[in-house]
From TrEMBL:
Catalytic activity field: L-seryl-[protein] + ATP = O-phospho-L-seryl-[protein] + ADP + H(+); L-threonyl-[protein] + ATP = O-phospho-L-threonyl-[protein] + ADP + H(+)
Family stated for the protein in its record: Belongs to the protein kinase superfamily. STE Ser/Thr protein kinase family. MAP kinase kinase kinase subfamily.
Gene this chain is encoded by: MAP3K8
Cofactor: Mg(2+)
Protein name as it appears in the record: Mitogen-activated protein kinase kinase kinase 8
InterPro entries found in the cross-reference section: Kinase-like_dom_sf, MAP_kinase_kinase_kinase, Prot_kinase_dom, Ser/Thr_kinase_AS
Amino acid sequence: MIKQDKSSIKMDYKYDNGIELLLAHMNIEDIINAAETLYQLEEAEDAGLSFEEEGLSQEEMDENEEAGHSVGSGSEQKNYSDGVGGVQYGTVTDLLSFVNLLSNMQTAALQHLPQEMGVLLNKKDMVVKKGRYQINMDVLLFPWKLTYKNPGSGLVPKGSFGKVHLAQDTTTRKRMACKLIPMENFKAADVEFQARFRHENIAELYGAVLWEQSVHLFMEAGEGGSVLEKLESCGPMREFEIIWVTKQVLRGLEYLHSHNVIHHDVKPSNIVLMSDKAVLVDFGLTVQMTEDIYIPRDLRGTEMYMSPELVLCRGHNTKTDIYSLGTTIIHMQTGSPPWVRRYPRTAYPSYLYIIHKQAPPLEDIAEDCSQAMRSFLERALEKNPVLRSSASELLKDEAINPPREDQPRCWSLDSALEEATHTILRQQSQHHDTTQGKDLCAVWIHCHQE
């Protein structure tokens, strides 16, 4: 039996009717799959079922996770294996099924998709029109433009195997972040943890759409950019700013660690500033432990922020994230990652041996660091993970819970909106950019640099 390459078939229209044409150019198995899909859709419609199901609450997600319950399975879940494109609203389970399918599919099989395909969780702010959510039509993508960048300069931040753009739904005007990941680099883990675990200090995932060989991940937008972008533009942060960011990150880590989840890449570029909070992003290296110790097959993370136990590759747990947070605080204090000022990158292409022999980098703590914060860092950077403090313990530390009267009035961007009104209007008239992201970022700078 001769096998034909579907992509090489050419239509010559010599057949008398559509049935003959269909049979000649389509595998009979494809016809059966298509018919079964249509039948399932009609059944679901007759029974009053809808794909436009609201996402689960956190309590429901936790219960389903513990019970191993699968929501949206069976006839309710769209079968993408039939090659049919389209975008639909769905549950977290629908989204995970979709991304698992993508991660297992050959790139060549997706080259001739007639349209975009995907699952969206955010029914309120993302409008699907007749099964379509078209890039640059239903949703527009732009480079990031941050207030503390030079006026008019565009910035496209890069994450693990992806670039992040600002996105805006053309119907609802909802602004989002959109991370583009080429299909050859896409892994289900890029979506899994961000979809399953919802917390105010974890960037909320809105959905995933495949278009033109790239997976577009839509998520909560950080109007102020990442901590790294702020450091590169404004230099070292002051201690009250560091306290605010640290507390936000610890809350996110406390939640993840309570589910035995290790982020594995806590660093300034993976902490994004919102109007009144900071969130963790980039879960491509994240794992969920099934035992007390996680033994990796390879190194996970970014060298300068790695814990000594992670460098050894003999096993680690959630405490490795706490160490990475400690190194991140040093970066926020000084404007440079630990180690690099004493051991320049030009002379030391790898820091793994230095970390193994000399950790923790207490000598890199800023000279003007308060005694309370220094004590906090010593707890977070404890070389022995057994003695290292947990996220829950550090959240109670006096260093990040100073008396209110000892701190500036501006505890968040929103709290400073009223007093910064004149600054915002002045900047708007100068730069003619009225996006909320720039406004909020302007308030951040006004509030935290007075």
